[in-house]
Design goal:
The complex is a heterodimer of chains A (517) and B (148).
Chain A (H helix, E strand, L loop, with lengths): L19 H7 L37 E4 L1 H19 L3 H10 L4 H10 L1 H8 L8 E5 L17 E5 L4 E3 H14 L19 H7 L2 H17 L4 E3 L8 E4 L12 E3 L5 E3 L12 H24 E3 L6 E3 L6 E3 L6 E3 L22 H54 L4 H29 L5 H23 L4 H6 L1 H27 L10
Chain B lengths: L4 H12 L5 E5 L6 E7 L10 E7 L10 E4 L29 H13 L9 H9 L1 H15 L2
Antiparallel strand pairs in B: 1-2, 2-3, 3-4
Helix pairs in contact in B: 3-4
Classes of the chains: A mainly alpha (517), B alpha+beta (148).
């Protein structure tokens, strides 16, 4: 899609202008200097992978940058290189120091300038040009770990001067990485020694698989240390996204982002892309729908409310003379009116139109109304969620159809691609619709919500029509390709319209909500 | 599977040069499994008691700590009802440089110096903090009842 055409060659994030100071003010664990603005030799000067530029960016989009694993390694490496050029310590040592300081380079440099010895000792490093070396055992040496005393066996001596045989070191580090899943606490095995085994020593000690795992673990700890970088939440996806949205901005924007593998998700809450609904509302909604929906459905179908105290009551037998267990109010199950006024007409209520029973029913309707309102939105939400799941089946069918089109009708592969592309539009529109219902549930009614709901129903109508077109068989689809494409572009446009209007309202803070969050 | 040299050496030394007040003997059919007896340290509420423990050296020993557990019932804030022990060197502070004998000495020291601020058995730790004199009495009573 054109949203992610990256053809700019100027500074990105131009509406952010995030200097280090402004960042440190708000989030003190964000040391952004390593890849901030472009003028300090930033790590991020590869324009190709920047998100859309601010002036071409739509209101519902958020500046972000997809990062592959290689990108992340490069960022770490450039932080190490930078600190190396300032502190003139070996890169190995710098890497360990940065890990200890949660990759906050400025913090490390500052502390080191103040008291280098303290920084070194608390981080488990020693200022020496060589952090480890291999040597041959002298006669009479016995490894303190395995008690082997084979003559001339290979030993590893760490910067702390402790040594043990190579195979024990290999066993020790592999065990730590594989079993404990740690990249941080790889310390010298000697008792009470805090010296951290350097990266380069691990590299020569362990197998390549274990080393890769070690690097992944340290990458994870790097990403954890950054508020502005998150992993893509999709299963088995190992790419990340950098996005500079701050917590308070989540009240006015929905930061939808796309990772390097094309998965879209919300940067704010790491759930699926939930435009136009705000993260906080999504959380409320999911909680409510998990807790309440089935119960609410059942209550609606099987109970009536006491006209006095609104306790839900299930009638599981007996006559129409009801007595509320909660407030002792006596009423008639049929007309909901006060039982006393039924006089002699026991068990045979014909007072539906009486003033009194009408009032009782109205009193009930308020609280029932809120339940029904919820169910109205929930059922539509659930419907689209289910349809989105069914869409997957349809998708398989679409793939088959496009094969048929290629084989029997002689359509080229490129020409047949319109099917899967249209399908993606359908799927996306359903997702948007789904969340638009959750959003609408929390909106206070006003003229803007009326427009929103009009947009919503327009999109919904178009989506159902498009969905129907996919049910056609292959030959019919080929005949009505134009119609399908028209519908698709209409759905696409309506979807953009819906989220655009919602985003405008969000950024102008026009929406009023029925809940506080 | 042959037993690592390290375990053989440690076992030999436990026999030839035993630690006073501590006895550790491997099982005949499983040389990684030890029966341990620790004497309660003098001038502690456990004085006079002989506490039985089981000790197992896992496959990855000495890269990981031995697994060790009290078999004798004991009233101690850092030892729970199942005999599990809360001790730093058995967890995060384990180092391959430590040995069976050093670990057992640490446990003996733990008996001499209970630490209710880092409890494993919460109720015992609370009792210890609320009324130490009473708690010590209970520990003595348990020692008499279960460990003599």
């Amino acid at each position: 899609m054109s949203d992610f055409d990256y053809n700019d060659n100027e500074a990105p994030y131009s509406d952010f202008e995030f200097s280090d100071q402004s960042f440190d003010d708000t989030e003190d664990n964000n040391d952004e200097i390593g890849y901030s603005s472009t003028d300090d030799g930033s790590a991020f000067d590869d324009d190709d992978i920047y998100g859309p530029r601010a002036d071409t960016r739509k209101i519902y989009e958020t500046d972000h940058k997809a990062l592959t694993k290689t990108d992340l390694f490069d960022i770490c490496q450039s932080l190490i290189d930078d600190a190396h050029s300032i502190l003139s310590l070996p890169k190995d040592t710098i890497a360990t120091l940065l890990q200890t300081f949660n990759w906050r380079r400025d913090n490390l440099i500052e502390r080191y300038m103040e008291d280098p010895d303290k920084v070194l000792s608390t981080s488990g490093v020693i200022d020496k040009p060589t952090t480890f070396q291999f040597e041959t055992a002298e006669s009479g040496y016995m490894c303190y770990i395995c008690c082997e005393d084979t003559p001339n066996m290979e030993l590893l001596r760490l910067g702390c001067n402790h040594r043990a045989c190579r195979s024990c070191f290999k066993y020790y580090t592999e065990q730590k990485i594989n079993e404990e899943g740690t990249s941080k606490d790889l310390r010298c095995p000697n008792e009470n020694c805090t010296f951290v085994i350097p990266d380069s020593a691990i590299k020569v000690l362990v197998t390549i698989d274990v080393y890769n795992k070690y690097k992944d673990l340290s990458l994870k700890s790097f990403v954890r240390s950054r508020n502005s970088i998150k992993w893509c939440p999709y299963p088995d996806c190992d790419s990340a996204v950098e996005c500079l949205v701050r917590d308070y901005e989540l009240k006015t924007t929905v930061p939808s982002v796309t990772c390097a593998n094309g998965h879209s998700f919300c940067f704010g809450c790491s759930l699926e892309d939930h435009q136009p609904c705000l993260c906080a509302l999504v959380k409320l909604w999911l909680q409510k729908s998990q807790d309440d929906s089935e119960t609410a459905n059942w209550i609606k179908a099987n109970t009536k409310e006491c006209s006095k105290c609104h306790a839900p009551i299930e009638k599981n037998g007996g006559c129409n003379h009801m007595k509320c267990k909660t407030c002792r109010h006596e009423f008639c199950w049929i007309c909901m009116g006060d039982w006393i006024k039924h006089g002699q007409a026991y068990y045979n209520c014909s007072r539906y139109d009486d003033k009194d029973s009408k009032e009782s029913r109205e009193a009930i309707s308020d609280s029932r109304h809120s339940l029904e309102r919820y169910l109205h939105y929930f059922n539509r939400y659930a419907n689209h969620e289910q349809s989105a799941r069914l869409d997957k089946k349809t998708y398989i069918m679409v793939v088959k159809k496009s094969k048929v089109l290629q084989e029997s009708i002689g359509m080229s592969w490129i020409q047949a691609q319109f099917l899967s592309q249209s399908f993606k539009i359908l799927h996306q529109a359903r997702k948007t619709l789904k969340w638009s219902y959750a959003f609408a549930y929390y909106l206070e009614k006003s003229h803007v919500t009326t427009i929103f709901e009009d947009n919503q129903s327009d999109l919904e109508f178009a989506v159902e029509q498009l969905s129907e077109l996919f049910e056609m068989d292959a030959s019919e689809i080929a005949d009505r390709k134009v119609q399908l494409l028209d519908k698709c572009s209409y759905v696409g446009k309506r979807r953009i319209k819906l989220i655009e209007e919602a985003a405008k309202g969000l950024s102008a803070e026009e929406w009023k909500y029925v809940v506080d969050f | 599977m042959s037993l690592p040299k390290r375990i053989i050496k440690e076992t030999e030394r436990l026999v030839s040069d035993p630690v006073p007040g501590i006895n550790a003997e491997p099982h005949d059919d499983n040389l990684r499994y030890f029966n341990v007896t620790i004497d309660g340290p003098s001038s502690s509420p456990y004085e006079g008691g002989k506490f039985k423990l089981e000790l197992f050296l896992p496959e990855d020993y000495p890269m990981v700590a031995p697994k060790i557990r009290f078999l004798t019932k004991i009233y101690h804030p850092n030892i729970d009802r199942l005999g599990r022990i809360c001790l730093d060197v058995l967890k995060a502070n384990w180092s391959p440089a430590l040995q069976i004998r050093t670990i057992l000495l640490s446990i003996q020291a733990l008996l001499g110096a209970p630490n209710p601020d880092d409890p494993l058995a919460n109720d015992v730790a609370q009792a210890w903090k609320d009324n130490e004199v009473e708690a010590v009495k209970t520990a003595q009573a348990w020692t008499k009842e279960f460990a003599v």
